[in-house]
Amino acid sequence: MAKIKAEPFAFPVKHDELALIVIDMQRDFAEPGGFGASLGNDVSRITRIVPDVKRLIQGFRNAGLPVIHTMECHRPDLSDLPPAKRDRGNPSLRIGDEGPMGRILISGEPGTAILPELAPVKGEVVIEKPGKGAFYATDLGRVLQEKGISQLVFAGVTTEVCVQTTMREANDRGYECLLAEEATESYFPEFKAAAIAMIRAQGAIVGWTAHVDDILESIAHA
């Protein structure tokens, strides 16, 4: 079996059962004036991973492997937004409010869209998720089952919240999970470091982590 150089040990990859999940690379989280910036975050930390995320996406496309995108967003009527979620964050600008790029984190609004450089192409699945984890209240599980996927490579933001949450959900469902280190980021470097340490602790208790170049080399020779 082929292996990808990874931590805490090599990832035993099954190329015909492998997919890439790109988590929430949305304008509202990565661009000045978006929701992330309104909370006082340095969005340049997010935009700097775009080249590596793009390389990873292109590598999977070139190898004929599935690429799945997620977007955190809610229905326009906010019926899937619990008050406990809406009431947190910046009191002056909340989910559903009008922001510089339309209503914040609402399906169909400009700010909710994936960054143009990473936009899905025809045939790629886009999962709109109301929660942090991509399995909650979505069709992701069904999509993966239909595609025969058992292994997932993760990229996107933020490492400690939506990425890690989805990895934990996937791990509990029996998927083998690999995080691409340079293709994920947090507004807080210490949070990213802590999340990576937790993911691969105790013999890959949640999953593995690897460098983008090592992942790309493996899938290019599949």
Automatic annotation (TrEMBL):
<keyword id="KW-0378">Hydrolase</keyword>
<protein>
    <submittedName>
        <fullName>Cysteine hydrolase</fullName>
    </submittedName>
</protein>
<feature type="domain" description="Isochorismatase-like">
    <location>
        <begin position="19"/>
        <end position="207"/>
    </location>
</feature>
<dbReference type="InterPro" id="IPR050272">
    <property type="entry name" value="Isochorismatase-like_hydrls"/>
</dbReference>
<dbReference type="InterPro" id="IPR000868">
    <property type="entry name" value="Isochorismatase-like_dom"/>
</dbReference>
<dbReference type="GO" id="GO:0016787">
    <property type="term" value="F:hydrolase activity"/>
</dbReference>
<dbReference type="Pfam" id="PF00857">
    <property type="entry name" value="Isochorismatase"/>
</dbReference>
<dbReference type="InterPro" id="IPR036380">
    <property type="entry name" value="Isochorismatase-like_sf"/>
</dbReference>
